[in-house]
Every structure is written in C-alpha cells, then in structure tokens.
Amino acid sequence: MVGRSIWVANIIVFISSACTLILELIAGRILAPYIGVSLYTWTSIIGVCLAGISIGNYLGGRIADRWASPMTLSIIFFVSSLATLGVLAMTALFAATGLPIQLPLMARIISLTAVIFFLPVLIMGMVTPVVIKLTLVNLQTTGNTVGTIYAFSTVGSVVGTFATGFFLVEAMGTRAIVLAVAIVLLLMAIITGRLWRSAPKAAATTLVVLAVAGALFNFRSDLLTSPCIYESSYFCIRVHDTEIGGKKVRSLVLDHLVHSYTSLEDSTVLGYGYERTYANLTTYLTQEKPALKALFIGGGGYTFPKYLEAVYPQSEIHVLEIDPAVTVAAHDYLGLKQDTRVQTHNGDARYFMMQWKNPPKFDVVYGDAFNDLSVPYHLTTREFNKMVFDIMSDDGVYMVNVIDNYQTGEFVRAFLNTLAEVFPNVYLMSEGEAWIHNSANTWVVVATKKPFDEAGFAQVISAKNSGQISTAVMDSPQLNKYRSEGRRIIISDDYAPVDQLVARLYWEREKS
After folding, report:
1. Where are the beta strands (DSSP E) in 406-501?
2. What is the pLDDT of residue 511?
3. CB 3.0–4.6 Å: which of 18, 35, 128, 333 could bond 160 by disulfide?
C-alpha cells in the first residue's frame, strides 16, 4: 500500500509526527500538577522526546532493512497506540504512589518524564524509516522521495504543535487528547495493515481492542479523570479546602503550587505574610488617599483584590490576569462576586499594558504574578519596570512579592538593582526581619518615585496594631551594602537569566 504512492507515505508520516508532537506538548500539562512547569521541566521533556525520536529512528531503520512491510508498519502503529494509553496508566500510578526511589530534583524530573513518555515517542519514531523504505522504488529519485517525506513529517509536527497549544488542551483536556491520539494510532494500524482483509488478524485485533476498552472503562476514574477543575492553556487549576490559623479557607493551586488562600466568609483574612505586608502598606497609603486607584499584575485567587474591595470600598481596582480560566475559578469557587467592582482584564499583563489606551494613573501597583519559583521573566525586566513607572502617579507605590534566600540567593538582589535603574527609590520589606535567617523567604520589594516615609509608616502601623509593627523595612545602609555585593545583574529584555537565578532554591529544597 505504502510503496504505491508517495502521497500515501506523506499522509502516514504527517499523522505520525503530529501525534508525536501532540504527546510532547501534552507532557508539560500532564506533568504540571506533580512537578510544575519550569525551564527544567521543559528541558527534560524536550530532551527525553528528542532522545526517543532519535533512538526510534535508528531502530526503525534497522527494522526497515530487515522486515519492511505494511504489516511491520501496522504492528508499529498498534504498539505505539498501546504505549500511548500507557501514558494514562503511568500517570495514574505515579499520582497514587510517586517514584519508587528518592532522587535529586533534576533526576526526578527527567526520570518521571522518561518513564511516562519515552516509550511511545520512541515507537512512533520508528514509523518514518519504515515508510521511506517501503516508498523507495527508484534510486534515481531517492533524494526527492526522502526530502518530501521528511518535509511532510515536519509539517505534521508543526500542525500537531499549533493544534495542541492553541486549541486542543482547552477544548478537550489532556486525558481526552491522549485517548484520541491512541485511537488515531490504532486506526492507522488497521489501515496500513489492512487488518480487516484477514479474518484471523481482524479477530485478534478486535479481541485486543475490546480488552483495552474494557480496562479503560473499569479504571476510567483513575485513567481519564483529570485532577484539575479546569485545564486551561496556562494552568491545571485546582481548589482545595483547608485551614489557616483555625480558619477555614480555600486554596487555589495552579499546576503544583499553592497560589493563594481565600476565606469565603471573611474577605479580610490574609493567609500569606506578603499579603499582610501589602495590607500594612495599603493602610499607610490610604491615610491621605482613602480612595486608591489600584492595579494588580496577576489575579490568582483574587484574595487581595477582594480585601481591597471590602476594606476600601471607594477604591478603583483593576486586575490584569493572564488566564481567563483563573478568573472563572475565582468567581465559581473563591467567592469573587459576579457583581464585583473589581475590573478584570484577561491577557498577558505586559502586552495589555502596551495596548492600554489612556490608562488611569495608579496610586498603587501590586505585583502578584510571581508564584513561588515560577517567575514570568518578562515581568522582571528594566523595560517592564519603565512601563509600570509610566502608569503610576507621582506619589505612587509599586510593590512586588519575590521569593529568594537573602543570604545565598541572587534573584532578589538583581530585582532590586533592576528596579533601581528606573525608580529613584527602592526598599526591601518582610514580615519580621527575615534577612537574619539563612532560608528562602517571601520578600516585598517596593519601588517609589518619591522617598518613602519609613518613620511615618511605622507610626501608622503601630497605631493600627496596638503598638506592634509586623512589617520590617531594611534600613538604607544595610540595603545599599546588600545591593552592592555579589554580581551586579540587571535584568533586561536582552538578558533575563531569571530561571538560573532562582535555580539555587531548587537545590536548597532538595537538601532540606
């Protein structure tokens, strides 16, 4: 069948390559709830898949030289279909038990990726060499034949990539996509081998399909049910009920990281120390401006926008949230009212700000797009800081939560120095004097156009909290000394080694 037409060969490799890239893209979404999405995750996925494709090409070439036939191609597709279904089984197994051995973080990410995705990608990598062998009938046209087949293979990869990233994930969900890929591969096995033309082959195929379908049906809750309430193009979104300080709250989990804690009964409950620092800074700012114009870069669980709306009802509140599904989850599960005065703008914050015509001059900008070690680097650069500077009022305040180890890390220092390229005043704050500890902490980095009145801030917060000042502000000599130490890194659009700067925290967590 294949040898009669190069166009049949092109269609076969197109479908095979599309399925391969669909699995590769889906790998990031399937692994996200367990190991997150980072430079290390995608490095592992791409490396494992390329290794699988390479070894598959090699083995496929050996098989093609010895046993090239439509039936061989059919068997490869059939086994790849079963291996693709194995992705669901291995994912469910890992979710239930984890890896059987303890490994360092990097090795754990690579191992998990390989265990789940290496085999199906390897088997699909065998397809193209076998198809080429079956198609070559004239050595005078070898170059044209091989080039055309590889071109269609690449086009299939492109189509699979675009279809998955732009449409399939949100339309179907990851588990359904894996199942669909397995079905497509099974159909290719039946078609390339013409299995319906032989009664024994048709009977054997039918028995295997019925057995697999029965297993899928019996274990459908484990294999086909996603752990996410929503699977968007950006996150696996989950919501859990828990307690903080004896109060019932609901946590928003994006991929594998808790993004926020929200009380459905009391919008003034703040679960994180950096949010309480935000609250203290907001209290100080509202002494002169009770009606703030506030912008949030990142919405997440909408915990602090809800707090601001409840405590300062005259304020104008805008939220730039990249993922519409996160906003939907906030409405459906996290107590954000449908008639809220919070104005949400869905889209990438930087791109939206570039397109925003006549934005308000904001009194306060809250950065809340950095989640644990997941840092969108394009929101850390000097160029982005200039965009924030331009939409702030003359006495405006920009505050951002940043996680780093003050003693050993480099990210918070680089972020401070980058802000200082644009803002004349930068400050480092935390709940308590966290800089005395050699451990990761969530910092609040503050930038202003006018000098910040630290004494006035302390007086206001002390009066509010019965003499207690929970937010510590690093004094200027210590901050200047800290900023001048180590490497002087300025993060820009042309140089943004953010993942590398936070990498040390990965290693420290492995050792703890």
Report:
1. 425-431, 440-448, 471-473
2. 58
3. 18
